[in-house]
Description:
Layout: H1 2-26, H2 29-53, H3 58-80, H4 83-100, H5 112-134, H6 148-155
Helix pairs in contact: 1-2, 1-5, 2-3, 2-4, 3-4, 4-5
Amino acid sequence: MVVELLVEGAVGGALWSLVGIALSRYVRDVAGRILLAAVLIAAAVFYVVFAAQGDAGGAWLAAEVVGILVYGGMAVLGVRRSPYWLAAAWALHPVWDIVLHNIGPGRAFAPEPYTIACLSWDLVVAAAIAVAYGTGFVGGRRTRPAPADAVAVGAG
C-alpha cells in the first residue's frame, strides 16, 4: 500500500508540475508559479482541516496555521522573486508531512495515505521546478534566435 501511495503521489505531482511548467513556458512565467504556489498552500491548508476534524485543539490549529504562513510565505517569494523559493518550499514540505504528521504527534489526526502520497508528490514538484528553471526551459534564461534582419546586417 505504501508503494502505491508513493506512486499515486508522484503521478499527481508530475501532472500538476507539467501543467504549471506549461503555463510558465507558453502563457506567462508567473501563471505557472501561481498555480504551483496555490497547490502548495492548499496542501498546507488540508492539515488545518484535518486538525479541526480530529479535535486536535487550539495549539495544534495554531501550529498548522504557522505551517501555512511558512510555506505560503516561501510560495509567495517563489511567485514574486525566484522560482527556487517555490522549489525549496516543495522540497521542505515532506518534513511537515512525514516528520510532524506521519511519524510525529500529528499522526493522531492526519490521514496516513495523505501524508505518504504527499512525500512523493512534494519531491516530484520540487524537482520539476528546479529542473525546468535550472535548464532554462522556463524563465528568463531561454535563448532566442537572433532576428533574421540582425543576422543579415551582421553578416555584411
